[in-house]
Amino acid sequence: MANITRFYTMTDGAVLIPANLNEDVHSAVGGRGIVSEPNGGLDSANFDATFAVERHLIYPGEAVRMGQDGSRESLDFYDKAFGQSDATNFVPIAGVATRMYVPFDCAAMLCEWQFFFSLWRTTSNMAGDPKPAAPVVRTKAFLNGSPLQHTVAGTPETIFPNAAGTVIQKNHEHLMAENRFGNHLELNVTKGWHEINVQLYMAPQPGTETLVLLAAKPGIPVEMDHRLTAGFRNARLIPFL
């Protein structure tokens, strides 16, 4: 099994010290307890060279664990809730997150997430710019509060004005719904709490569009907010000893 160093040596004729004997059985110090070491104290560097794993030696959940959370409720996000910069103003998407306690150092941990979304995203109607760029809408995963830069992903433009930028010509929101799935493999994970979550950033939409309610009536200029609707969300963590 594990390499264990005895803490207490009993000597003939000496008074037995129960607290010291208990340290040999169950200890918070690594490499000491004959019960505590296999029950949460094992890692990839803590096996005797001649040890072979047998089924009865592994506690349930000791070699592989999994934590998963999710939600089936839909959520709407609007650009008015975000700041000017995507460097510091990402907002968590509730449901695309999970947190679990890993009781041992492990060789790897697989992080996975999945969610569906539809999006109202259009260009800003800026005078003098016939083809203004649509403000960005991005998602990014975070592990233990640190951004995973390889998971940054943009979103499509779904609402298209006419050539003059005065009215909405095409609405493709219903055609561009997306199932976004991602994963990340973290190596050499230390025991303790770990959390994965996916966050969203929507740049402010500064422009207006003309809303035409009746063909015979003049249009009404209104502010056009970006809106992302997320649903059927989940995230999971799978650590491997």
In short, what is this structure?
With 241 residues, the protein is mainly beta. It has one helix spanning 18-25; strands at 67-71, 75-78, 91-102, 106-120, 137-143, 146-153, 159-161, 168-171, 178-189, 192-202, 208-211, 220-223, 227-240. The chain has 1 helix and 13 strands, in the order αβββββββββββββ.
Helix-strand blueprint:
Elements: H1 18-25, E1 67-71, E2 75-78, E3 91-102, E4 106-120, E5 137-143, E6 146-153, E7 159-161, E8 168-171, E9 178-189, E10 192-202, E11 208-211, E12 220-223, E13 227-240
Antiparallel strand pairs: 1-13, 2-13, 3-10, 4-9, 4-13, 5-6, 5-10, 7-8, 11-12
Regions with little confidence, pLDDT below 50 for 5+ residues: none
Q: Into which percent range does the helicity of residues fall?
A: under 10%
Could you describe the largest sheet, including whether it forms a barrel? 5 strands, antiparallel
What is the CATH architecture assignment of the largest domain?
Sandwich
Number of helices: 1
Structure description:
By secondary structure, the chain is mainly beta. It has 2 domains: 1-63, no CATH class; 67-240, Jelly Rolls (Sandwich). It has 1 helix and 13 strands. Strands 1, 2, 4, 9 and 13 form a 5-stranded antiparallel beta sheet that branches. Strands 3-10-5-6 form a 4-stranded antiparallel beta sheet, with no helix packed on it. The longest helix is centred in the N-terminal third of the chain and has 8 residues, at 18-25. The relative contact order is 0.24.
